[in-house]
Amino acid sequence: MKKAPLLLALLFLCSYAHLHAQRMCGIELTRAALIAKDPSWAQRIEQQRASQQGIADKYKQSLKNGAAQRTATVASPIPVIFHVIVTSAQFNQIGGYAGIQQRIDSQIAVLNRDYNAQNSDSVLIPYGWKTRFASSGIHFGLAHTAPNGWGTPGYELEIIPSTMDGFSGDANDYSDAKHAASGGLDAWDVSKYLNIWCINFTDYNGLLGITVSKSQCGGAGFPFDEEGVCVNYQAFGKRASTHDDYIACGYSTDGAPDYYDLGRTLTHEIGHFFEIWHTWGDDGGACPWSGSDLDDGLADTPPEADHKFYNYPDTIPGGTYYDACHYDGAIDTQLTTYGVASLDYMNYTDDIAMHLFTPDQAAMMAAQVATGGENNTLTQNPTLLNWPANAGVTEQELDHEVGIFPNPTTGALSIGITGISSLQQIAITNILGEQVFTNSEARLHNFYSIDLSAMSKGIYFVRCTFASGSITRKILLQ
Ligand SMILES: [Zn+2]
User: Fold this and answer.
1) Rounded distance, CA 293 to CA 50, Å?
2) Rounded to the nearest 10 degrees, how much is the dihedral formed by the CA atoms of 253, 259, 260, 262?
3) Distance from Cα 310 to the centre of ligand 1, integer Å
4) Architecture of domain 395-477 in CATH?
5) Which of 103, 123, 186, 444 has the smallest C-beta neighbourhood within 10 Å, fewest atoms?
6) pLDDT, tens digit, for every residue of 337-370?
7) pTM of the entire structure?
8) Where are the domains of the chain?
9) H, E, C per residue of the chain
10) Topology annotation, domain 21-384
11) Residue 331 CA to chain centroid, in angstroms?
């Protein structure tokens, strides 16, 4: 008899979970994959957790001593390249070329605000947490020079066949998406660019992002050219219009659904890229006093049993939310003032509920970017943020004003160009580099209808050359 209420409660929980997508991140999957490859990784990962505070303290002390420059504060932005790998339907779903451009532009703006304590929603941070709202000093920018020296809008696009849909996580780091040989796009030099792959995760419902950091690469770990972040193609960038397509979150405060549409998925994942952990420490619900668990290894994120979902009214702006690690009868009761870090970017709360990195988290990340840190080289190539000297075309000209569709095509291909007076040539080459089309008119038009149906099926490249640079798009003839 007594089991009936429990059963009802379970049924309710199951249906509730089904209706709402909770945030999920893949860092635990990558750690499990590393341990499966080589059991000694378990010890290495625990050592990493235990060393977090020491690294943060050392960095903070170096700033106090003036022994080190405020490297992260003055360092140039990290060049970011987005590898967008989607089907034609998914491409349309996120708004085509204009949608991708808007998402990457807004994502970079979100990262710069969140990593420098300039997010406007910080006004919602409760009083007790104000002193734990910190800036890492790390900046980001779209890459505008590609490894081959050509100009880039900051993303490259691969349209995959609809039969492919997306990528599975067999290797737990979505490695197929990171290699052209397996249908994805190769990383750009990981010592110079922060690589982000925007893809569909086909086998983990609710998975929004999965990161491979440098400490997980090399030896028996992941290959270095898989370093970077995979993000769900419906969860990057910041919403510009009510019509934009984003994944709905699990909780709403006002009846209307909230979405993962504020760019916080990448704020969170890039935290992992800079080696910080989830605030609860991925320890299966343990508290620091219940064993060797140190949670995330940082002192200023309060002990926390397990992740927090949604955006409950009693987390923000109420300011305190407790769980099983609230109080053990011996630990400082300051925890009762602050609650757990449900408002931290490294929790699982909704985009709308996340507001801060703590000083220790910020110091830990800044240490990776500072001189001697594992990500320092990313700040040493500021010219990659600039367009190449011969490419005076602006980002907008390149990406808002050149449209090639449909892609893939069965033969008919349209190329639309608006407002560019400096266009010199449109050429299409096959994968062997042989030119199969070039515009022959003395005067250029702004719209071309090209019939490729007599050509062999396969990959072709459309190159539009302007007085000041060129842009190349890959197309698939089916
Ligand atoms: Zn995570």
Assistant:
1) 9
2) -80
3) 15
4) Sandwich (2.60)
5) 123
6) 677 888 899 999 889 889 999 999 999 999 999 9
7) 0.78
8) 21-384, 395-477
9) CCHHHHHHHHHHHHHHHHHCCCCEECHHHHHHHHHHHCCCHHHHHHHHHHHHHHHHHHHHHHHHHCCCCCHHHHCCCEEEEEEEEEEHHHHHHCCHHHHHHHHHHHHHHHHHHHCCCCCHHHHHCCHHHHHHCCCCCCCEEECCECCCCCECCCEEEEEECCCCCCECCCCCCCHHHHCHHHCCCCCCCCCCCEEEEEECECCCCCEEEEEECHHHECCCCECHHHCEEEEECCCCCECCCCCCCCCECCCCCCCCCCECCECHHHHHHHHHHCCCCCCCCCCCCCCHHHCCCCCCCCCCCCCCCCCCCCCCCCCCCCCCCCCCCCCCCCCCCCHHHHCCCCCECCCCCCHHHCCECCHHHHHHHHHHHCCCCCCHHHHCCHHHHCCCCCCCCCHHHHHHCEEEECCCECCEEEEEECCCCCEEEEEEEECCCCEEEECCCCCCCCEEEEECCCCCCEEEEEEEEECCEEEEEEEEEC
10) Collagenase (Catalytic Domain) (3.40.390)
11) 36
State the distance from the centre of ligand 1 to the C-alpha of 78, rounded, in angstroms: 21
Highest mean pLDDT among 21-30, 87-96, 282-291, 302-311: 87-96
CA of 2 to the centre of ligand 1 (A): 38
Q: For residue 28, how far is its CA from the centre of ligand 1 (angstroms)?
A: 8
* Identity of the residue numbered 414: S
Domains 21-384 and 395-477 share a fold: no
- The per-residue pLDDT for range 289-306, each reduced to its tens digit, is 776 566 899 989 888 888
Q: What is the CA(462)–ligand 1 centre distance, in A?
A: 38
